[in-house]
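Q: Sequence in, structure out?
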Amino acid sequence: MTEFSKLWHLKQINLFQGLDKKELDYLNETTKMQEISPKKAIYFLDDPANTVYFLKKGKVKLVKVSPEGGEIIMDVINAGEVFGELALVDDGGREEMALAINDCLLCSIPKDKFTEIIENHPRLNLKLMKLIGFRLRKFSSRLENLIFRDTRHRLFFLLQDLIEKYGEKHENEILIECFLTHREIGGLIAAQRQTVTSLMNDLKNEGLIDFNRKKIIIRDPEMFYKQLTP
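A: Exactly. Output:
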């Protein structure tokens, strides 16, 4: 990858939008770009938290494994987003694994270099603090759903989140390009794969959705949104 191409990719990262050329040039000098294949680990549980990552292309899932060996997905990172940022405020090891869902292109920067950058660039520091605050609110909302809602409603709220991020309107329907398996959906809503498949089939039989390996279609958006009320 040429330096020009790498710099272009850095400009597409949400956190870096608004930085001037000098700031971007310094980032260009201190970051490393790499390609990651699907299902490959970017880091593992308890790895040293000494690097921050910026995702340019693809999707990454942040995963914890239960004592029984089940996969709990903490978050899905999309192109243009940052992950591993808690390395900046925590000197311990990683508390989750980061796995590529599909082909990914990301850049990484050592923790000490990025700390130096944000200390000298208040705008970037403020953006990062807002990002961490947003992530904490997001996790709090997910925890509330897991505690107070049944599995069916947890699935509805996940589908609502997927609609907001990836949904495209097609006449009276909403199309979601599906990149999650039923097992991964289960990891996001604390349910077994078989339970997810059964619930998805129930929603299909009720005329609310249709789905296959590549997409989920919300057939009746009005009725779908009514289901979000317990």
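The two ends are 51 Å apart (CA to CA).
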